[in-house]
Amino acid sequence: MGFAEMSGLTEVMRDRFIWKALLAEFLGTLILVFVGCGSCVASSGGGSAAYVQIALSFGITVATIAQAIGHVSGCHINPAVSVGMCVAGKMKPIKATLYIIVQCVGGIAGAGILYAVIPEADRGALGATVPREGMSVGQAFGVELIITMVLVLTIFGVCDENRNDVTGSAPLAIGLSITACHLFAVPITGSSMNPARTVGPAVIQGIWIEHWLYWMGPCAGGAIAALIYKVAFRAKPTGDSRGEYEPAAQDTKESECEYRQEDVIENLIENQPSPISLIKCSITQLPKPETVILLQNTMGLTFSSLLNRLFGKNDMRILMVGLDGAGKTTILYKFKFGEIISTIPTIGFNVETIEYKNISFTVWDVGGQDRLRSLWRYYYKNARGIIFVIDSHDVERLGEDLPNALGPAELIDRLNIGTHLQKRRWYIQSSNASIGEGLYDGLDWLSRELKDY
């Protein structure tokens, strides 16, 4: 592997939509600095109430931005987070560097806008972070390192795709970690936790007191947190024996095997009585192989849908289901945006519209955690097709233990597809989700099959 591949230069050069992620990071950091540092200006009188106001402002702003742009860039909006992702191997160095650059530019822009809209007499330091008087550089460095560790550990924990025990809102958990750390550190160091948040006011107001520690502390904290989580805390993929942490809900063998892929397929067929056609695509999605199965629901046509088919665009509702951590959302966004996007576990559902060959597919990506599977049947109504995503490295739930992903023929045998789908047509298509190879062949087949009914 050459330098261009290892550094991520090749990935960035091939990514036609990298500008969307960079724009999201720029705008997200701009908003964070404008609103967060704006709260510092508004509460410049100091005191406990001011600290609470600042802490809530930064925490709620981050949680809100994460909801808005998390699906586009992962919503790092913080160089320390991007460093952590790079150290953990979730982001290549070149892309991480681009993220950090636009984050800093966004921070400066946010501080510049804040400077322009605040009267001169009220600007103060514009929310610049400096150590409290009497505090040593080493103490300030340690505080910034530790509070950033808390943030990055929280991010890795709630965004671990192998966990099925995460409940509630991941963005809210991340925002609350920032609020908690701010309540402690605002009166001590200003609670940066984010070099881009500090560099904005520093550039605009020219305040550079011990500025380096607001880079080194958070970035070191982010890197350490990433290493700790990757080595010791990362959730164990079901069926993997490499020693990663496994949530308590899956500590027993019986719990691991409770939902095998065969059982889920049987349940799927039982609850979807209409004729179904099937595609199964062998997928390699970074970093682990997967299989996508598309099941077509042939419910019958209304007169209006027949007219749409003949003279206009067809609107079709597609349901995407599968066990938790299988990669459903990653594949959905690959179809939608043409790129691999960092995601958080789906709690509930995601909905995206994909335009393809005069067909508008409205795809519902439904979460696959244990407590959500019983709800799948409520989404079947009016669905013209079903995309069933299978992780072919999921040993316990798929029932295979091979060094590589199972081939199509082996999966047919292991999942007993021939028995389950005796009266339904099906087709196998090998694919690679990381580059999109084969995915659209699957959509071609599904499009043709749907048009036949």
UniProtKB/TrEMBL annotation:
Q: Which GO terms describe its molecular function?
A: G protein activity; GTP binding; metal ion binding; water channel activity
Q: Name one GO cellular component term.
A: plasma membrane
Q: Where do the TM regions start and end?
A: 21-44, 50-75, 96-118, 138-158, 170-192, 212-232
Question: Its catalytic activity?
Answer: GTP + H2O = GDP + phosphate + H(+)
Quaternary structure, per UniProt, is: Homotetramer.
Query: What membrane topology does the UniProt entry give?
Result: Multi-pass membrane protein; Lipid-anchor
Checking InterPro entries in the record gives: Aquaporin-like, Aquaporin_transptr, MIP, MIP_CS, P-loop_NTPase, Small_GTP-bd, Small_GTPase_ARF/SAR
- Write down the Gene3D superfamilies for this protein, in alphabetical order: Glycerol uptake facilitator protein, P-loop containing nucleotide triphosphate hydrolases
> What's this protein's name?
small monomeric GTPase
First-level EC class: hydrolase
BP-aspect Gene Ontology terms:
chemical homeostasis; establishment of localization in cell; protein transport; vesicle-mediated transport
User: What keywords does the record list, in alphabetical order?
Assistant: Cell membrane, ER-Golgi transport, Golgi apparatus, GTP-binding, Lipoprotein, Magnesium, Membrane, Metal-binding, Myristate, Nucleotide-binding, Protein transport, Repeat, Transmembrane, Transmembrane helix, Transport
In its UniProt entry, the species of origin is given as Orchesella cincta (Springtail)
**UniProt-annotated binding residues for Mg(2+):** 329, 346
